[in-house]
């Protein structure tokens, strides 16, 4: 039997039985009850500046068709009497997009590219999508940038990279991974053999996360493009990346802009460029390289045969 809870959701909104409210309007959920059909939360409704109760049905709940019809009829009656002060008002229904997409990814066998940039997926949505990627076997390109999900979801995605063997492009720009999330992804990169392009810009990776990624650069043999911009690596981080470039033989593009690498980082990278023979594009914009760092790079470029 089909998942009638989802069918009901689509039918009720399309036929105008109830209003549809965007899920991201509900914030600060507090669990106040658990039942056979799901959970009940107390939430703040930003769209209406009020406190409401949100009943969340289980995605896999199999609801009898008669019960579904009765429930819709009940909602119709509620709409007629909801203005009475002694009747609890029913405002509408919603759906958590992240989980719905994750469910679709588990069942879809044709999608190869998915862009979810800046969609406020939420913690549960982000984790659900990560879990779905462990089962999906067709997606090769995924953009989850600017969803501000954090360490928990970063660990879930790292687990994906350890298991998934189809994903080639992954964008995690401004994902709020932090140094611990960076370490998790670095460990996954040491095991992954399909990813060719990874964007980790603006993730607050810091020196510790960067050192772990530098180690991954030494060991990974498939990555050709890596964006580590805006992560505040500092001079020590720049040195670690430079050491990794001396050993890496696959990267062709590396973005290190806005990392405050300083003169020591610049000198280390200049030395690394003398050893590396595959990198063709390097972005060092706004890194405070200074005179010494600039000189070192200039000397390197002066030695390149024309």
DSSP summary: helix tally:
10
Q: Which runs of at least 5 residues are low in confidence (pLDDT < 50)?
A: none
* Number of strand segments: 10
Task: Report the top-level CATH class of the largest domain.
Answer: Alpha Beta
Strand order of the largest sheet: 4-5-6-7-8-9-10
Summarize the SSE layout with pairings.
Layout: H1 4-14, E1 26-35, E2 38-45, E3 50-57, H2 65-81, H3 97-107, E4 113-115, H4 123-133, E5 141-143, H5 151-163, E6 169-171, H6 178-191, E7 197-199, H7 206-219, E8 225-227, H8 234-247, E9 253-255, H9 262-275, E10 281-283, H10 290-303
Parallel strand pairs: 4-5, 5-6, 6-7, 7-8, 8-9, 9-10
Antiparallel strand pairs: 1-2, 2-3
Helix pairs in contact: 3-4, 4-5, 5-6, 6-7, 7-8, 8-9, 9-10
Keywords: ATP-binding, Cytoplasm, Cytoskeleton, Leucine-rich repeat, Nucleotide-binding, Repeat
Protein name: Protein kinase domain-containing protein
Subcellular location: Cytoplasm, Cytoskeleton
Description:
- The chain has helices spanning 4-14, 65-81, 97-107, 123-133, 151-163, 178-191, 206-219, 234-247, 262-275, 290-303; strands spanning 26-35, 38-45, 50-57, 113-115, 141-143, 169-171, 197-199, 225-227, 253-255, 281-283.
- It is of the alpha/beta class.
- Helix 5 (151-163) links the parallel strand 5 and strand 6.
- The longest helix has 17 residues, at 65-81.
- The radius of gyration is 25 Å and the shape is elongated.
- The chain starts with a helix and ends with a helix.
- The model has no long low-confidence stretch (mean pLDDT 86).
């Amino acid at each position: 039997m089909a998942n009638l809870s989802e069918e009901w959701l689509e039918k009720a909104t399309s036929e105008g039985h109830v209003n549809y409210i965007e899920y991201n309007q509900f914030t600060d959920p507090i669990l106040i009850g658990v039942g056979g059909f799901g959970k009940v939360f107390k939430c703040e409704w930003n769209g209406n500046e009020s406190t409401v109760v949100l009943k969340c049905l289980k995605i896999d709940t199999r609801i009898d068709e008669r019960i579904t019809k009765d429930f819709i009829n009940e909602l119709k009656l509620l709409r007629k009497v909801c203005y009475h002060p002694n009747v609890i008002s029913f405002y509408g229904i919603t759906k958590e997009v992240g989980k719905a997409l994750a469910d679709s990814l588990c069942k879809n066998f044709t999608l190869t590219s998915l862009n979810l940039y800046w969609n406020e997926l939420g913690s549960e949505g982000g984790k659900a999508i990560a879990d779905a990627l462990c089962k999906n076997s067709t997606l090769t390109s995924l953009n989850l940038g600017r969803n501000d999900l954090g360490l928990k979801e970063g660990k879930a995605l790292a687990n994906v990279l350890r298991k998934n063997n189809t994903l080639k492009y992954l964008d995690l720009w401004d994902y709020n991974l932090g140094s611990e999330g960076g370490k998790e992804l670095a460990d996954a990169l040491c095991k992954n053999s399909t990813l060719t392009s990874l964007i980790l810009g603006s993730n607050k990776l810091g020196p510790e996360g960067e050192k772990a990624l530098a180690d991954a650069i030494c060991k990974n043999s498939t990555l050709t493009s890596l964006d580590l911009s805006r992560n505040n690596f500092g001079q020590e981080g720049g040195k670690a990346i430079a050491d990794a470039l001396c050993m890496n033989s696959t990267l062709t593009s590396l973005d290190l802009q806005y990392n405050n690498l300083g003169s020591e980082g610049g000198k280390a990278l200049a030395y690394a460029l003398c050893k590396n023979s595959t990198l063709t594009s390097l972005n060092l914009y706004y890194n405070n390289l200074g005179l010494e760092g600039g000189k070192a790079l200039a000397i390197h470029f002066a030695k390149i045969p024309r």
